[in-house]
Write a structure and sequence with these properties.
Radius of gyration: 20 Å
Structural class: mainly alpha
Number of helices: 16
Order of helices and strands: HHHHHHHHHHHHHHHH
CATH class: Mainly Alpha
CATH architecture: Up-down Bundle
Shape: globular
Number of domains: 1
């Protein structure tokens, strides 16, 4: 069994289920906190004036932080075979920061509490993926890694749907909030942060019990040497570096969508908190279905083609999303777009897992996060700045469409390794 793990084979179906369940916990935090509930609460209640800009700049700083420390932490995790320990630390930070967002009351004086705790929640939630992604070869073979990656993404989205439904039907919709919560103090909204934190805690635990990781890759601990050796591994594979550059751009587009989709719906089309949650559930369902279909497409036709098809589709849908004249068209475009968000995420991960040497997965996934985050502060920052300059939320969303287009051209037509 140990040899299978070392060579990137499965270490049991239970491990595969445990791996997917972690995504259930992580995705719920992203959906409830960073995209659909707390982000909207912050921009409409705590900081109604320029709240979108503040949220955008905070997201930018968080993305830059992940980009700078992700490769180093990934290298340290590889060198010491401590991927699960690093994952446990970042998960704990994410749980604590998210739960403590309960304290962010709906008045401007709680601005900094909301911003600082949100920063730590987002940074931790993103850093988890450095170590989580690095464990993918431990639960999948080269032959089924696309399906396992897509299945995990899909399960994560469906888990987020359940969490969002609980938030909607137990906390948000009832005339009288549960557990004696005071709606006048937005306690029913703030309580969803406790839900998100506990959700992550519960669904992350199986991974730590049932997934085993590969042995240490090296004894390198110097940050400069970690970055240097990681880059040397990447450039050994033809076209791999180009893929990482392309990912910088299309991940930027995705970061804008994730950070502002709920805010965009609320600000442009006047969605209420309840309507935003219905929208969130529907889009996550679309993303989950897309991830499952994309996983099959990945194994049959390759991760690279899956990424290309998804990006072209996202660019086309993004234009429709941008010019939607009413809420009905916006709904249609968002649901179609969701079908391609899941595949581009899952296929990007499976491509790296297929190409990267198994003993250097965390290090290279650190670069994967670097490629996804080193410029991702630009998207939210440009979005925020365009809104400040123009006063038009639609102007900000142009950034996502442009980044998808650039990603398509940089990616090219030749898959890494060919």
């Amino acid at each position: 069994m140990q040899n299978q793990t070392k060579n990137g084979g499965k270490n049991g179906s239970l491990a595969t289920v445990a791996y997917a369940l972690f995504d259930v916990g992580n995705s719920a935090v992203g959906a409830i906190h960073a995209t659909f509930i707390f982000a909207v609460y912050f921009t409409t209640t705590i900081a109604p004036e320029n709240g979108t800009a503040y949220w955008g700049y905070m997201t930018s700083v968080a993305a830059l932080t992940v980009a700078l420390i992700g490769p180093i932490l990934g290298g340290l995790a590889d060198a010491n075979a401590r991927r699960k320990i690093f994952l446990a630390v970042t998960t704990t930070i994410g749980i604590v920061a998210t739960i403590f967002l309960w304290s962010a009351e709906p008045i401007p004086s709680f601005f900094w509490i909301a911003i600082v705790l949100s920063f730590f929640s987002i940074v931790a939630n993103e850093l988890m993926f450095v170590f989580y992604n690095a464990l993918l070869p431990s639960v999948a073979t080269k032959e089924n890694i696309g399906r396992v990656s897509g299945w995990a993404w899909g399960v994560g989205y469906f888990g987020a749907i359940v969490a969002l439904a609980i938030a909607l039907f137990i906390f948000i919709l009832p005339e009288s909030a549960p557990f004696g919560l005071d709606k006048d103090k937005s306690e029913h909204v703030r309580a969803t942060m406790i839900l998100a934190g506990l959700w992550l805690l519960i669904f992350s635990l199986p991974l730590f019990f049932f997934v085993r990781e590969a042995p240490a890759a090296s004894d390198i601990s110097n940050p400069v040497e970690i970055i240097k050796s990681g880059w040397n591994e990447i450039i050994k594979v033809p076209g791999f570096a180009r893929f990482f550059v392309a990912r910088m751009f299309y991940a930027d587009g995705l970061s804008v969508v994730f950070a502002f989709a709920g805010i965009f719906a609320a600000k442009v089309f006047g969605f209420t908190n309840t309507e935003v949650l219905y929208f969130a559930i529907a889009v996550n369902l679309s993303c989950g279905v897309g991830a499952l279909i994309g996983g099959w497409f990945d194994d049959r036709f390759g991760a690279f083609l899956t990424i290309r098809v998804s990006l072209v589709s996202l660019f086309i849908v993004g234009i429709g999303f941008l010019v939607a004249p009413n809420a009905q068209v916006f709904w249609i475009m968002a649901l179609i777009g969701g079908l391609f968000i899941g595949p581009v995420q899952a296929a990007s991960r499976s491509l790296v897992s297929r190409v990267a040497p198994a003993e250097h997965t965390a290090k290279i996934f650190g670069f994967y996060m670097l490629a996804g985050k080193i410029t991702s502060f630009v998207g939210p920052a440009v979005y925020a700045s365009l809104i400040l300059w123009t006063g038009n939320e639609r102007a900000g969303m142009v950034t996502a469409v442009l980044f998808f287009l650039i990603g398509i051209f940089v990616l090219g037509k030749k898959a890494p390794g060919n």
